[in-house]
């Protein structure tokens, strides 16, 4: 036992000396090397016993290995770690040296030799398949131009009181959340609140849709020369189009129709905003060079001190206050109504198709017919609505009116559909005897009669079997016997007996039966031809009935329904400028509104400390962006020349289920929800060319590139059909039986809602909060007057009474 203890002590002593030795080697290599040379070889006997008998006394130990041609300086490495090529040292002590001769320049397969990307705007897009990149929509964060943001902040919103502006903006958001309809602003304060709250997102939506139209048509081909913008805002679509087309875009005609009878204030603000774009002020840059020389001569005699003073003067952009819009000259013409005789290459409609929810289909049908009359052949129509249920149903109804999918249920593909109401050639139909007819009706009946005769002649030339010939001969003999029997009783029929009363005179022209009309030339069309055809470019990949359309937005208000109704909408992120951040600092716009509260916001039920915390910074989550949803539609009118119309009719007459061209991007499916990413598989919910909502499976087995592209997709992109799919799941649409059940549920819910509403109104009349009378009498009167001025009855009676003073002019001042 004592011997074993002494052995352990000796081992500890040797290990301690060994540890001190390695530490000395690590800290001071030169001194440790001298100590190592003076040591007795017998000192290594214990180490030899631990490492094995293979190590000889004359061999160098592991820590004697040199590094980078150095004589010493590396730590001990055991044989086991050496096998796995792992160094027993800190990462900070490692130094990798690369010889310049061994280094070879490797060029990325996604870049050109000069370093530029082969495709796309960034490295992510460069790694995509060219077809995937073609179906990809714009994902950049939309940025409002700095000059426009400045003029809105300094020259438009600065003229109104911030508290009044926030209050009116909150009312706009509250009405949109409840009624979902955007009303035309009337007063100056309403216009300022509309621009402060809605202009930014509306601009981003219009900018996104116009970029997609430019991509589908072709950047080189997209150059509209006559443009019309329709909306409640300050020419939102025209501002977005000017930014896309560039500073040198000068079309022949640019018109903006601001919806509303009292649109004077909004037109002033539209003029101010448009004046900040260069392509609206090209007249200023057409001044001859002589003026520049005159100004240069004037500045020659200016002293350096005067020059410094001029530089210190405030610039025009720093001006804060109102602007006289009557002195501003822009190229765009601001209209009070729609034109009658003009035609446009591009028409943009921004949330202006529906004004009253109770007249849902009637308003949309009337407005879309008025707009389509103004569209030129080969022109484009862009519709943009809010991304809610009502906005989607509005877009779906306009689409239904234009292409009438219920009349072409068996048709496949995206063949342009006839729009009969806008066509100058109306298809002829057989009229009844008591209806009025014209020359076109008579001509159509003659052509139809000729076609029937030709069909009879073709039937006579057909070959018959022996039994059919015997039956026909027997029928003919029986008719001859019947004719002989009639002639024997009443006598033979003469030629004069066959004439009508009006025949035989000179005022009538008798046409023989063997008369043949000349064949139709290339410059003429058939009687049922139409010269107005419409096709849908985006977002639909088919011309069938929309599988998500319910036909009425009232179904979305059913709270107790079993099915969750989805609708087609897309998102767009936009950067917040300074004026938006300043607007949304208030507690009204930072609170989650309580619709059941008396004020509609729920601020009365919150404590004072809570209200201070809800002040907000205008940047929720420290982000300077916001996201809005929208629904849209891009339609195109086909050319109306004879050759184009005949090609459309030929395609329709030879249409089949296999005629869909998968190489054409207009037939690719649209992704309508965020892709589901699972292990080695991607699920895409798409609006398929078949006219159904389908779930496509894109597994990794289709290929590395296809799987990579599928994982990079987002809602709104097109999935290229040539890249393929593995499996398809077809979703069922809402049947007529379910709609009838929903109609019954809606009626029951409406009755209960009206009953609860009557109870709330009666409670407000009979009860009142005592704190309501604690305020100052002036404050209470001001609040009552403000609520009274907002009512419709007050505005109507004020117009009838013809007040001398218009109180709307003093709102927010």
UniProtKB/TrEMBL annotation:
Molecular function as annotated in GO: iron-sulfur cluster binding; metal ion binding; methyltransferase activity; structural constituent of ribosome
Highest taxon in the source lineage: Eukaryota
InterPro entries: Mt_RNA_Methyltransferase, Ribosomal_Rsm22-like, RSM22_mit_bud, SAM-dependent_MTases_sf
A GO cellular component annotation in the UniProt record: mitochondrial small ribosomal subunit
GO terms of biological process kind: translation
Listed PANTHER family: 37S RIBOSOMAL PROTEIN S22 (PTHR13184), METHYLTRANSFERASE-LIKE PROTEIN 17, MITOCHONDRIAL (PTHR13184:SF5)
Transmembrane segments: none
Protein's UniProt name: Mitochondrial ribosomal protein
Region (Disordered): 88-122, 291-313
Keyword terms, alphabetized: Iron, Iron-sulfur, Metal-binding, Mitochondrion, Ribonucleoprotein, Ribosomal protein, Transit peptide
């Amino acid at each position: 036992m004592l011997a074993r203890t002494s052995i352990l002590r000796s081992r500890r002593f040797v290990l301690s000396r060994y540890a001190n030795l390695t530490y000395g080697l690590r800290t001071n290599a030169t001194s440790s090397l001298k100590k190592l040379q003076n040591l007795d070889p017998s000192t290594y006997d214990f180490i030899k016993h631990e490492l094995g008998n293979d190590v000889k006394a004359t061999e160098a130990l592991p820590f004697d290995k040199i590094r980078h041609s150095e004589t010493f300086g590396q730590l001990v490495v055991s044989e086991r770690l050496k096998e796995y090529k792992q160094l027993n040292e800190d990462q900070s002590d490692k130094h990798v040296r690369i010889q310049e001769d061994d280094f070879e320049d490797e060029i990325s397969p996604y870049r050109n030799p000069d370093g530029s990307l082969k495709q796309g705007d960034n490295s992510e897009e460069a790694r995509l398949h060219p077809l995937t990149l073609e179906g990809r929509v714009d994902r950049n964060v939309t940025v409002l131009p700095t000059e426009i943001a400045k003029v809105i902040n300094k020259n438009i919103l600065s003229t109104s009181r911030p508290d009044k502006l926030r209050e009116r903006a909150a009312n706009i958001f509250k009405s949109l959340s409840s009624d979902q309809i955007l009303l035309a602003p009337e007063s100056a304060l309403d216009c300022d609140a509309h621009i402060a709250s809605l202009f930014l997102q509306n601009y981003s939506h219009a900018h996104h849709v116009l970029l997609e139209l430019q991509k589908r048509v072709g950047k080189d081909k997209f150059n509209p020369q006559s443009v019309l913008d329709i909306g409640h805002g300050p020419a939102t679509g025209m501002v977005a189009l000017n930014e896309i087309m560039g500073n040198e875009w000068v079309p022949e005609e640019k018109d903006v129709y601001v919806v509303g009878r009292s649109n004077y204030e909004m037109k002033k603000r539209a003029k101010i905003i448009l004046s900040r774009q260069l392509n609206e002020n090209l007249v200023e840059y057409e001044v001859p060079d002589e003026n520049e020389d005159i100004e240069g001569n004037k500045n020659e005699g200016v002293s350096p001190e005067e020059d410094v003073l001029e530089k210190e003067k405030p610039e025009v952009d720093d001006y804060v206050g109102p602007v006289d819009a009557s002195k501003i000259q822009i190229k765009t013409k601001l209209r009070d109504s729609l034109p009658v005789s003009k035609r446009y290459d591009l028409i943009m409609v921004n949330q202006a198709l529906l004004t009253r929810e109770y007249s849902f289909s009637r308003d949309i049908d009337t407005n879309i017919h008025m707009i389509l009359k103004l569209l030129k052949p080969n022109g484009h129509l862009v519709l943009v609505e809010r991304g809610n249920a009502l906005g989607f149903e509005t877009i779906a109804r306009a689409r239904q009116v234009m292409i009438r999918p219920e009349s072409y249920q068996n048709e496949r593909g995206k063949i342009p559909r006839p729009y009969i109401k806008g066509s100058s050639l109306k298809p002829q139909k057989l009229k009844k005897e008591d209806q009025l007819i014209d020359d076109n009706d008579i001509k159509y009946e003659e052509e139809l009669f000729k076609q029937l005769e030709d069909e009879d002649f073709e039937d006579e030339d057909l070959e018959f079997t022996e039994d059919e010939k015997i039956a026909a001969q027997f029928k003919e003999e029986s008719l001859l016997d019947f004719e002989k029997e009639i002639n024997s009783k009443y006598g033979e029929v003469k030629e004069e007996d066959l004439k009508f009363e009006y025949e035989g005179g000179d005022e009538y022209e008798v046409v023989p039966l063997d008369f043949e009309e000349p064949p139709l030339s290339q410059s003429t069309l058939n009687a049922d031809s139409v010269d107005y055809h419409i096709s849908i470019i985006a977002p639909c990949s088919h011309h069938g009935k929309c599988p998500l359309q319910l036909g009425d937005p009232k179904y979305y208000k059913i709270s107790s329904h079993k099915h969750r109704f989805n609708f087609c909408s897309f998102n767009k992120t936009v950067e917040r400028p300074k004026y938006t951040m300043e607007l949304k600092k208030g507690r009204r716009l930072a609170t989650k509104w309580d619709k059941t509260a008396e004020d509609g916001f729920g601020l009365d039920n919150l404590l004072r400390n809570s209200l201070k915390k809800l002040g907000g910074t205008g940047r929720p989550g420290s982000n300077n962006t916001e996201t809005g949803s929208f629904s849209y539609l891009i339609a195109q009118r086909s050319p109306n020349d004879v050759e184009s119309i005949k090609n459309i009719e030929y395609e329709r007459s030879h249409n089949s289920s296999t005629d869909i061209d998968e190489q054409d991007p207009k037939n690719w499916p649209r992704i309508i929800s965020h892709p589901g990413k699972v292990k080695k598989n991607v699920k895409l919910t798409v609006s398929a060319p078949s006219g159904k909502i389908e779930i496509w499976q894109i597994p990794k087995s289709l290929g590395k590139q296809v799987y990579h592209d599928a994982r990079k997709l987002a809602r709104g992109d097109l999935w290229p059909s040539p890249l393929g799919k593995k499996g398809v799941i077809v979703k069922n649409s809402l049947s007529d039986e379910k709609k009838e059940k929903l109609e019954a549920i809606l009626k029951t819910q409406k009755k209960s809602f009206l009953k609860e509403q009557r109870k709330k109104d009666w409670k407000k009349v009979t009860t009142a909060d005592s704190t309501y009378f604690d305020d100052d009498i002036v404050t209470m009167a001001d609040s009552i007057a403000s609520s009274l001025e907002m009512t419709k009855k007050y505005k109507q009676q004020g117009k009838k009474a013809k007040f001398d003073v218009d109180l709307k002019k003093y709102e927010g001042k």
